[in-house]
Every structure is written in structure tokens, then in C-alpha cells.
Design a protein that fits this description.
By secondary structure, the protein is of the alpha+beta class. It contains six helices and eleven strands. The relative contact order is 0.14.
């Protein structure tokens, strides 16, 4: 599942290779990916314009368009990639092949395509068809971005109430950008039990969680994604904590599969 670092990578692809290029055609025929718009609605809104800026907050990405046009919202879903191709189909930016399900130039899963005046294309390539394209997405409902949230806003987001702290970390209207793997990494770094209710967090735990969030998000952005985080390789049966070699254990917290250290993340 793409989380904040993967979406930032996609945003940077758009910024590097898709801005300032006149749009001459749009394939928005996939009515499911482009819901609630009808086929042709997004095309009519974008043809003749340019993408002029690419933004991200949390796991959401959107582009401004020229001439006061609509905002183009892009959600990657579980497997979506933004790919930029040249006029002959050569891939010039974006994509990656960690799933092993496609190679360069394989665009059979392109669910949405923008064609530029020079013949190049920007595509949402999405094998599982769980991404989404929409005009004027409601980005105002998102909380502060996990990469830049202040300590005070973070404390307000995770403390209080009886919901587990992991669930509060992942509520996008509180903090935008933390998914399941990032949440497990943050809680492991901070040595906090994932199911601890928000109203039981101590000031010291809250400070550790904030520091861990900054560290985990920064590391994932720097190193290429959440799959590079320390705890990910140990989230499996028989896994051991890489810090103290205690057994890792698995449970469901906030409806999500969760792994934690049995020694350092106690109830």
C-alpha cells in the first residue's frame, strides 16, 4: 500500500516531467477509477490546459491546472504508479517494479492517461484498479501532513479518547500520511503498545511518538519508501525484535494487522 513516501515519489515524478506541457487528449474511460465523473468529463475539463503545480498532503496528491482550471486529484490505491512515457512509448520517469508484475513499457494497466502536445503521456498504471482520479478532491478534510506536523498538533491528534493509539495515528483527518507499516515502525521506535488508549498516553510517550514519527517518515523519504523501514523485515511469524531479540507478536489493532515487540511494547 503506498504511504506518504511513495506518494511523494509520485508527486515528484509529475513535478519533474509533466508540468507546463499542453494537454491534447485524456483517456478517462474507466468509469470506476474516474468515479463519480462520467467518461469524457475529465477530458473536457483538462484538454487545452497544462498541469502547473503538483502537491501532496499525506497520501493524497493533486495538481493545479492552468487558466484557473479544476484541481486534478490522483490517488494511487494499493498498486498505482505514475508513469511518464515519451512519444514512442519509452518510459522516461516514474514507475517501479517491486511487485514484479510489469516491466518498462508495459502499460496494459493504464487506467487514466493524459497525452501532451509533444506526444508524451502521463499515466496512472494500476494493476489492481484501486486508484482514483477525480476533479476538485476534498483535500481540506485532511489533517496536517505527517512530515511537517508540529509537536502540539501531533499531541492533540494522538491523545485523548479511548481509541487505540495506532488507530489515531492512522486517522487521516488527524494526521495525513501514516499507513499501517509506518504506524508499526513509529510505535516500535517509541516503545509504545499499539492498543494503548489515547487517553492513557503519558507526556513522555507522546514525545517519543512524535520523535519517532519524524524519524520514520524522514527515513522512508530518504531511503525510498516504507519497505525500507527497520521493522518491516521482522513483521512475520518467528520474527525477532531487531533491538532486543525478543519475539515479535501479531494482533489486530484498529482493524489492521499489527506487529510489536513482546518485551519493549508491553500493555
Amino acid at each position: 500500500m503506498p504511504e506518504l513516501p511513495e506518494v511523494e515519489s509520485a508527486r515528484s515524478v509529475v513535478e519533474r516531467a509533466a508540468l507546463g506541457r499542453p494537454i491534447v487528449e485524456v483517456d478517462d474511460s474507466d468509469a470506476y477509477v474516474c468515479r463519480p465523473h462520467r467518461p469524457g468529463d475529465i477530458r473536457a475539463a483538462l484538454v487545452g490546459r497544462e498541469l502547473v503545480a503538483a502537491h501532496r498532503r499525506g497520501k493524497s496528491m493533486w495538481c493545479e491546472t492552468s487558466g484557473g482550471g479544476p484541481i486534478l486529484g490522483i490517488h494511487l490505491g494499493m498498486s498505482g504508479k505514475i508513469v511518464i512515457s515519451d512519444v514512442d512509448g519509452t518510459e522516461i520517469d516514474g514507475g517501479d517494479y517491486w511487485e514484479g508484475r510489469r516491466g518498462p513499457g508495459d502499460y496494459r494497466w493504464a487506467r487514466f492517461t493524459v497525452t501532451f502536445a509533444d506526444g508524451g503521456r502521463m499515466m496512472l498504471v494500476d494493476p489492481r484498479r484501486l486508484g482514483r482520479i477525480r476533479l476538485d478532491p476534498p483535500v481540506e478534510v485532511l489533517g496536517p501532513d505527517a512530515a511537517t506536523i508540529t509537536a502540539a498538533d501531533f499531541a492533540r491528534a494522538v491523545t485523548g479518547g479511548t481509541a487505540p493509539v495506532k488507530a489515531r495515528l492512522m486517522e487521516q483527518h488527524r494526521i495525513a500520511g501514516i499507513g499501517n507499516l509506518l504506524a508499526d515502525e513509529i510505535l516500535w521506535q517509541a516503545r509504545v503498545y499499539p492498543a494503548r488508549p489515547g487517553d492513557e498516553l503519558t507526556r513522555a510517550e507522546t514525545k517519543r511518538l512524535f520523535a519517532a514519527t519524524r524519524e520514520a517518515v524522514g527515513a522512508a523519504l530518504r531511503d525510498g519508501g516504507v519497505h525500507t523501514l527497520t521493522i518491516v523485515a521482522h513483521r512475520h511469524a518467528g520474527g525477532r525484535c531487531p533491538r532486543d531479540d525478543a519475539p515479535m507478536t501479531r494482533g489486530v489493532v484498529g482493524g489492521r494487522t499489527t506487529w510489536w515487540c513482546t518485551r519493549e511494547q508491553k500493555r
